[in-house]
Design goal:
Strand content: 15-25%
Structural class: alpha/beta
Oligomer: single chain
Number of helices: 9
Radius of gyration: 19 Å
Strand order of the largest sheet: 6-7-8-3-9-10
Number of strands: 10
Length: about 270
């Protein structure tokens, strides 16, 4: 992993009328990393995702990707530069097949100009294998279950050939088994060289997948660090996690410590 930031958020602010949705948010994303973005509802997480992906133009600060300022770049050009995203509320092309949904991204994404229609459908089939949807490739997207729609959302984003993928609560509404499957998929995507920024409320997911966690509250960054450091931060506990989570995490840490000691004694 390079020491040079791949994506840099510099003093980003966003105002809607008199409301400061974001204020002076700064952090770096390293190539190949997984950044977890957490915080209470209304803390500015999705607003920041919209800024990075070009939906909003920030009222202050800058976003730099691979050394280039992109805060003024329209969404379709941000996509062609190598940044793609998913949405919490998934909206596939309901009347198209699953394969056709993904092929659209392959045709019009970063590598789309170099692909024929046939190559785009072949790429779509490859990605459906990756996300576990090859079995329903010919089914209409409208007929998919919620977990499969989430997988389709990831496949559509991957079809754009991103270097950075922004994931907005892809695990919301999933049961424990489905969350584990989603985590396995995201690890696989990251292992293929895609840098991830993950907005998620499920702390189990954030703790297990993130290399770095950034915490927003009331539009400001209140913490940044490793998952373990962030969950032990008094500011994060007060603003977001609550004392029960901190107590439970301390109990888990003690259990892991005792288990490690027991393994050392038996060795």
């Amino acid at each position: 992993m390079s020491d040079v930031p791949f994506l840099r958020i510099e003093g980003v602010g966003m105002k809607f009328g008199g409301l400061n949705a974001l204020s002076d948010v700064t952090f770096d994303v390293m190539k190949g990393s997984v950044v977890g973005l957490i915080g209470p509802n209304g803390s500015g997480k999705t607003t920041l995702m919209n800024i990075v992906s070009g939906v909003y133009k920030p009222t202050a600060g800058a976003v730099r990707f691979a050394g280039r300022t992109i805060a003024d770049v329209p969404t379709y050009d941000v996509c062609k530069l190598g940044i793609a995203r998913t949405f919490q509320i998934v909206k596939p092309f309901a009347n198209l097949s699953v394969r056709e949904n993904v092929a659209v991204g392959a045709m019009y994404g970063r590598e789309g100009l170099g692909r024929t229609s046939r190559a785009s459908f072949e790429r779509a089939q490859e990605l459906l294998e990756v996300v576990g949807l090859a079995r329903v490739a010919d089914r209409q997207a409208a007929d998919l279950t919620i977990p499969d729609r989430k997988r389709l959302e990831v496949a559509k984003a991957l079809a754009l050939d991103p270097e950075v993928l922004l994931l907005d609560e892809v695990m919301a509404g999933l049961n424990a088994t489905e969350v584990d499957e989603a985590l396995h998929l995201l690890r696989d995507v990251n292992a293929r060289g895609v840098t991830l920024i993950v907005v998620e409320h499920l702390m189990k997911a954030i703790m297990s997948i993130s290399t770095t966690v950034v915490v927003l509250a009331e539009g400001r960054k209140i913490a940044e660090g490793t998952p373990r450091d962030v969950v032990s931060s008094s500011a994060v506990i007060e603003a977001y996690l609550g004392p029960r989570f901190a107590q439970r995490q301390a109990q888990l840490d003690e259990i892991h410590r005792q288990a490690s000691e027991a393994r050392g004694e038996s060795a």
